């Protein structure tokens, strides 16, 4: 019931918000998101650290075809449920600083998005997963296309078509897998439960093409090199709350998909193609980082850094090691926190200076001790300084990739160096040095802004200092999943 | 009191100090900032002394909690107190406390005073984690943490773009080393299944000398040491790091942080003894660094830059000692160097303070009359570093050179050359600063004054230590080598022949005589040039040619890195962004088009099974169509 509430509560709240035409709409949206956070936190706190599905719901959907409306939370999804629950109220609150047209539509879209994301992370039926996977695209598409920057129409349409196109591959694979299931002696009886896909005996050829179908779908979503060209423009042109949803939570759908589908369903395909997939992921780390070094637009810089970071998560998953998978799971949480925080900092700076260009900024720290500290904390998390959240993830991920292939691990490790280069450059050019005309008078954080950044900073240190609160929760499920990989 | 409690208290005090002064920045009264942070450092020093005096000779481990654990890999947040960590603790907290006190006098008029003291405390916290951690990952926390503090303090005056660039350069160069360290840790995990020192060293004794895996591990760890301890090719950040306030240079960039690389290798001595090839590599890099940096120091005119190159060079000597498995000699030099180099930097700070922030020794001269205490202590520090008996530096450097002599005569000869240069550039610095006529402006002359007691007191303490530090390990089996002996039991077991050579006394006295003669000879040469002949280095604008130009410009290494590494990466970044992205976009679009055509074929193959497939297809297409219908704003 809890899981179903996590999906339905935002839907109901969002639908009610659409009917309200008062300025209180944003507060109500925040309230709904906070209730959802309480539910998600409750789910996390009461989650038993074993490999089982918990808080399940299960109803017939297309009964004759064995397709069910079923969901639940297990160790693979629990951190993502927590992440979605945590980030949505913060993203909502972060939008308070700017007046958006048609606020009831705006805020209800954020909540619809949250519902879809919760659905993706908790679906136990492959077609339900697919439904939510596609449904998540719609609210964020509207957010980007209606409130975005000048080039929003062209950019978001490309984003939409690109990702829909990728998902079609997954759909083909899902349908194929669905028809492979069955009960001996009972032709025509199939199941679309994801766990039933794990036990299929696919031919090597099928393993190969199903691998690529899943890979392309999820690689576009994350994105993995070279399927990333939709991403920087979309992140830059979208209004910041949409960018946060995309980078903070939505891209995790891709990583989650790899873990949930690709690893256990096509281990032989991974055996054959894993090296290529890992190489692509690692290429993206270096490629994205080197481009990030040269960006002057803060948002675009963070977009490329996100692209680089997610490449490491993908590589960690492909390493098929406990370290790599645990690293990917905790890094999804960490990255969501850091990237949302960094995009918010960029938004704060843009809100006060009307510029995101590093060469037009500088010296902001002179008047902003609070902003400086929060920005620095998020930056340290992002460059994986030990005792911050980024370190735990990167350490485990790099360890996993290194165990899979020493050379790829070493190349992936360049993120340690290049990340420091582009992040410190961004920090220095915006916060330090002489002030510019735009930054001469720069107000420090408002109360609401601090309330967005404070929880993020707390999470940066919590995950960094005591990661076992999260690692222990996911470990049994990861070890269980790995059994399918080595079957 | 319980040892594990004491262990945790050591880093905890500075962390509390950081929290008070950091969170209370501009709220804590300026008169309390200094005492709070210094008390934090002194409290850690006191606890370290307690641990030292109560030390039984057996390593003690204290585990706080299980930090990161995945599968069979457990990384504990735990401390290990043994001979090595105790020595480092005493240096870090002892010299650290003195520098905290000094900073009160040096920095109290700065508007960021509270922030500065908070960062110093934070640095101590990480440095103490580095030296007390019981495994490589805790060491890595400290390792990266001190790098962060170094970054924050080099760029402390953050309005200045050059300072910020220096800070960033330090962080990035250190990160290059850190990648090596991290990969080394991964290989340790692969090889030993653990990151705990005790587990690893116990298992390591079963490996054969020359093992390939150990070779890779030790080389990777050494890459980390190169970054942190400023060895070729990762040394160029350290001279630039002089942009930080002078107490920072003394604490971080001379006495403590930069010796972390030596600590790491001494800590891992079993592994290094198992890998003679790595030791050879270290030896070559160490001697090259020692000589290169010393030669640059000969022509520098910024008082702090001379000391910075001197630090790079002295670190080279420490590694030189390690490269011949003279681990305790390397540590001995770490200790004495902490005394005299901290003294020299703090002395330089006192001079800069008196000279109204002037750092160019061409504009100094004759300061001994105005800064008598600073002068005397600086003189003692100079004699100590030059290697003139019976001061501290003589004993530690001589011990290293004696071991090198046994191992490789050519290396010893080169070491002696570096030693001659050391004595020359230090006496040159001393003479140009404190002797002769004052060459600064009238305003500067008017302002000249001896520093306050908070600054001179640390100078005096450090001067005493620089004079008497040699007593720690007198030739012929001193206290230090005896105290450290248990640390090298594993090394002695795996390779008795590479370890523990005894030098016979006549050779030892001969070597001492030679190095003393070289040091004094160089000092006299400096005297002749800068006192008798009153030579003053040519101004910045002067034409320099040949070797002088090359050395004066630090062999153009920064320029080389700029051309060979920095610019190509920038150009690549621009190229990828401007062209790479465009091309990929085009290719992906094309491929997508082809695949879509192909998938249409695939759909025909699946024509027998309609059912849900069609439903889902239709759904997707409907979504596209609906969205396109609405999105016409």
Automatic annotation (TrEMBL), chain A:
Q: Which InterPro entries match?
A: NADH_Q_OxRdtase_chainM/4, NADH_UbQ_OxRdtase, ND/Mrp_TM
Q: Which residues form the NADH:quinone oxidoreductase/Mrp antiporter transmembrane domain?
A: 123-415
Where do transmembrane segments lie in this chain? 76-97, 104-121, 127-147, 159-179, 209-230, 242-263, 275-294, 301-322, 328-350, 371-392, 404-424, 445-465
Give GO terms for biological process.
ATP synthesis coupled electron transport; electron transport coupled proton transport
Q: Give me the Gene Ontology terms describing cellular component.
A: endomembrane system; membrane
The record gives the membrane topology as: Multi-pass membrane protein
Localization recorded for this chain is: Endomembrane system; Membrane
Keyword Protease, does the record have it?
Answer: no
Q: Where this protein primarily resides, as one coarse class?
A: membrane
Q: Which GO terms describe its molecular function?
A: NADH dehydrogenase (ubiquinone) activity; NADH dehydrogenase activity; ubiquinone binding
Q: Spell out the Pfam families in the cross-references.
A: Proton_antipo_M (PF00361)
The UniProt keywords, alphabetically, are:
Membrane, Transmembrane, Transmembrane helix
Extract the NCBIfam families matched here.
Answer: NDH_I_M
Family classification: Belongs to the complex I subunit 4 family.
- What is this protein called in UniProt? NADH dehydrogenase
TrEMBL record, chain B:
Q: Enumerate the transmembrane spans.
A: 29-52, 87-106, 113-131, 137-156, 176-195, 207-227, 248-266, 278-299, 306-328, 334-352, 373-392, 412-435, 456-474, 509-530, 575-598, 610-631
Any GO BP annotation: electron transport coupled proton transport
Q: Which InterPro entries match?
A: NADHpl_OxRdtase_5_subgr, ND/Mrp_TM, NU5C-like, Proton_antipo_N
Q: Where is the NADH:quinone oxidoreductase/Mrp antiporter transmembrane domain?
A: 135-421
User: Where found, per UniProt?
Assistant: Endomembrane system; Membrane
The NADH-Ubiquinone oxidoreductase (complex I) chain 5 N-terminal domain sits at: 67-117
Q: Which Pfam families match?
A: Proton_antipo_M, Proton_antipo_N
What does the record give under GO molecular function? NADH dehydrogenase (ubiquinone) activity; NADH dehydrogenase activity
Q: Name one GO cellular component term.
A: endomembrane system
Q: How does it sit in the membrane?
A: Multi-pass membrane protein
Q: Which Gene3D superfamilies match?
A: 1.20.5.2700
Lineage top rank: taxon: Bacteria
Listed A to Z, the keywords are: Membrane, Transmembrane, Transmembrane helix
Q: Under what name is this protein listed?
A: NADH-quinone oxidoreductase subunit L
């Amino acid at each position: 019931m809890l899981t179903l509430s996590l999906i339905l509560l935002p839907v109901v709240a969002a639908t009610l918000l659409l009917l309200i035409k008062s300025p209180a709409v944003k507060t109500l949206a925040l309230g709904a998101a906070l209730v959802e956070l309480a539910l998600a936190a409750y789910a996390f706190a009461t989650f038993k650290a074993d490999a089982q599905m918990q808080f399940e719901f299960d109803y017939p959907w297309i009964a004759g075809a064995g397709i069910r409306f079923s969901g639940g939370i297990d160790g693979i999804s629990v951190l993502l449920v927590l992440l979605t629950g945590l980030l949505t109220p913060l993203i909502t609150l972060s939008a308070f600083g700017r007046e958006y047209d048609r606020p009831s539509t705006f805020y209800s879209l954020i909540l619809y998005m949250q519902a879809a994301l919760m659905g993706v992370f908790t679906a136990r039926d492959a077609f339900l997963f697919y439904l939510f996977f596609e449904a998540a695209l719609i609210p964020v598409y509207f957010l980007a296309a209606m409130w975005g920057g000048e080039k929003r129409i062209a950019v978001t349409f490309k984003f939409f078509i690109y990702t829909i196109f990728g998902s079609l591959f997954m759909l083909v694979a899902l349908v194929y897998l669905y028809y492979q299931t069955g009960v001996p002696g009972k032709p025509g009886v199939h199941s679309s439960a994801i766990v039933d896909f794990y036990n299929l005996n696919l031919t090597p050829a099928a393993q190969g093409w199903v691998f690529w179908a899943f890979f392309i779908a999820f690689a576009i979503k994350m994105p993995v090199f070279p399927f990333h060209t939709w991403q920087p423009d979309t992140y830059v042109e979208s209004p910041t709350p949409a960018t946060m949803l995309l980078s903070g939570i939505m891209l995790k759908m891709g990583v989650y998909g790899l873990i949930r589908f690709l690893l256990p369903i096509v281990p032989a395909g991974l055996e054959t193609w894993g090296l290529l997939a890992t190489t692509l992921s690692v290429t993206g780390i270096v490629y994205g980082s080197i481009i990030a070094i040269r960006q002057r637009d803060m948002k675009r810089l963070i977009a490329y850094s996100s692209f680089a970071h997610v490449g490491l998560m993908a590589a960690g998953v492909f390493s098929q090691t406990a370290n790599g998978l645990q690293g990917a799971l905790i890094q999804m949480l960490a990255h969501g926190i850091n990237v949302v925080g960094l995009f918010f900092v960029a938004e704060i700076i843009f809100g006060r200076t009307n510029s995101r260009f590093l060469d037009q900024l500088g010296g902001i720290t002179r008047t902003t001790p609070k902003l400086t500290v929060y920005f620095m904390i998020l930056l340290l998390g992002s460059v994986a300084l030990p005792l911050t959240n980024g370190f735990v993830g990167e350490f485990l991920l790099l360890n996993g990739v290194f165990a899979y292939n020493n050379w790829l691990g070493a190349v992936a490790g360049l993120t340690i160096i290049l990340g420091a280069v582009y992040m410190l450059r961004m920090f220095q050019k915006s916060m330090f040095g002489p002030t510019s005309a735009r930054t001469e008078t720069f107000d420090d954080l408002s109360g609401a802004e601090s309330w967005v950044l404070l929880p993020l900073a707390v999470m940066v240190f919590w995950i960094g200092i005591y990661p076992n609160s999260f690692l222990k929760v996911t470990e049994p499920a990861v070890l269980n999943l790995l059994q399918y990989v080595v079957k | 009191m319980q040892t594990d409690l004491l262990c945790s208290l050591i880093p905890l005090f500075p962390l509390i100090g950081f929290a008070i002064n950091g969170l209370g920045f501009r709220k804590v009264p300026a008169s309390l900032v200094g005492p709070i942070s210094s008390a934090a450092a002194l409290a850690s020093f006191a606890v370290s002394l307690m641990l030292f005096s109560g030390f039984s000779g057996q390593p003690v481990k204290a585990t706080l909690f299980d930090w990161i654990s995945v599968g069979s890999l457990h990384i504990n947040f735990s401390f290990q107190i043994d001979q090595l960590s105790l020595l480092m603790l005493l240096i870090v907290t002892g010299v650290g406390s003195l520098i905290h006190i000094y900073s009160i006098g040096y920095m109290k008029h700065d508007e960021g005073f509270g922030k500065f003291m908070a960062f110093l405390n934070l640095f101590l916290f990480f440095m103490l984690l580095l030296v007390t951690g019981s495994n490589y990952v805790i060491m890595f926390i400290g390792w990266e943490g001190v790098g962060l503090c170094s970054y924050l303090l080099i760029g402390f005056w953050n309005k200045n773009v050059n300072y910020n660039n220096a800070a960033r350069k330090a962080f990035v160069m250190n990160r290059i080393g850190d990648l090596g360290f991290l990969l080394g840790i991964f290989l340790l995990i692969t090889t030993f299944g653990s990151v705990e020192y005790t587990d690893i060293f116990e298992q390591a004794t079963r490996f054969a000398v020359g093992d390939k895996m150990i070779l890779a591990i030790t080389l990777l760890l050494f890459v980390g040491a190169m970054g942190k301890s400023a060895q070729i090719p990762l040394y160029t950040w350290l001279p630039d790091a002089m942009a930080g306030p002078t107490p920072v240079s003394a604490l971080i960039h001379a006495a403590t942080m930069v010796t972390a690389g030596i600590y790491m290798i001494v800590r891992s001595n079993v592994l290094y003894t198992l890998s003679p090839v790595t030791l050879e590599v270290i030896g070559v890099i160490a001697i090259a660094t020692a000589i290169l940096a010393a030669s640059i120091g000969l022509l520098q005119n910024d008082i702090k830059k001379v000391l910075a190159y001197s630090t790079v060079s002295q670190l080279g000597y420490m590694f030189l000692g390690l490269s011949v498995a003279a681990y305790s000699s390397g540590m001995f030099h770490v200790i004495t160097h902490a005394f005299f180099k901290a003294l020299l930097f703090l002395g330089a700070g006192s001079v800069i303070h008196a000279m109204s922030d002037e750092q160019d020794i061409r504009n100094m001269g004759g300061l001994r009359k105005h800064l008598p205490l600073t002068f005397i202590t600086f003189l003692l520090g100079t004699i100590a570093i030059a290697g003139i008996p019976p001061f501290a530096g003589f004993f530690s450097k001589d011990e290293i050179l004696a071991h090198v002599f046994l191992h490789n005569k050519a290396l010893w000869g080169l070491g002696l050359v570096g030693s001659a240069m050391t004595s020359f550039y230090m006496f040159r610095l001393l003479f140009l600063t404190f002797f002769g006529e004052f060459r600064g402006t009238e305003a500067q002359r008017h302002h000249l004054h001896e520093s306050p007691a908070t600054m001179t007191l640390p100078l005096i303490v450090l001067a005493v230590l620089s004079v008497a530090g040699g007593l720690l390990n007198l030739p012929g089996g001193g206290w230090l080598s005896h105290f450290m002996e248990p640390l090298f039991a594993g090394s002695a077991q795996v390779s008795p022949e590479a370890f523990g050579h005894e030098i016979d006394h006549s050779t030892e006295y001969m070597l001492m005589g030679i190095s003393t003669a070289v040091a004094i000879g160089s000092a006299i040469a400096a005297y002749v040039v800068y006192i008798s002949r009153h030579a003053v280095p040519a101004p910045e604008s002067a034409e320099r040619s040949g070797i002088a130009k090359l050395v004066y410009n630090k062999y153009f290494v920064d320029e080389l890195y700029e051309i060979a590494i920095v610019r190509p990466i920038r150009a690549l970044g621009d190229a990828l962004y401007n062209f790479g992205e465009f091309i990929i976009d085009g290719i992906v679009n094309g491929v997508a088009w082809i695949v879509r055509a192909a998938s249409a074929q695939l759909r025909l193959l699946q024509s027998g099974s309609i059912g849900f497939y069609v439903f889902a297809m239709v759904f997707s297409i409907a979504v596209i169509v609906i969205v396109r219908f609405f999105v016409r704003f």
